[in-house]
């Protein structure tokens, strides 16, 4: 059972993530441990919940556990090119919104056209499973763009695996290495 009150988490039971690293993808576990070295109090609040991989989709999981959809944040990988250089961003937006790829993301990356990354490429480059991609542990060269609505309060995000979800507290996403809070990254 939860010993931490996470508003909107429904019936989903969580465990301390730092004590259950086997429920995280390797890059996610390594990133969480690195954050624990610099922000121990913040990292100690991170929770993980084991779920059936068939319930990994945000809407499916929300319905199955009676969660508030606004608690979930999705990590979308987007890329564009400028002068032959590919520019990649992991964009974190609330599940109740959509990443503004054609305007804000494109302008932020300074590219002519921005597109969602193909599934195979996203999985291979991130070291995470599709449906579990998370901002925790994305490769350092990528930009990490956090919609301002995700900068506050708890967020349910991927763990890098389809069989679990992370619950991160207020301030955690903005403490990730290279995180940039972007006003208007997402649209309703």
Automatic annotation (TrEMBL):
Pfam families referenced in this protein's UniProt entry, alphabetically: tRNA_edit (PF04073)
Gene3D superfamilies given in the database record: YbaK/aminoacyl-tRNA synthetase-associated domain
Domain YbaK/aminoacyl-tRNA synthetase-associated as annotated: residue spans: 53-157
A GO molecular-function descriptor: aminoacyl-tRNA deacylase activity
Superkingdom in the source lineage: Bacteria
Alphabetized SUPFAM superfamilies for the sequence: YbaK/ProRS associated domain
Record's protein name: YbaK/aminoacyl-tRNA synthetase-associated domain-containing protein
Organism: Peptidiphaga gingivicola
Organismal lineage: Bacteria, Bacillati, Actinomycetota, Actinomycetes, Actinomycetales
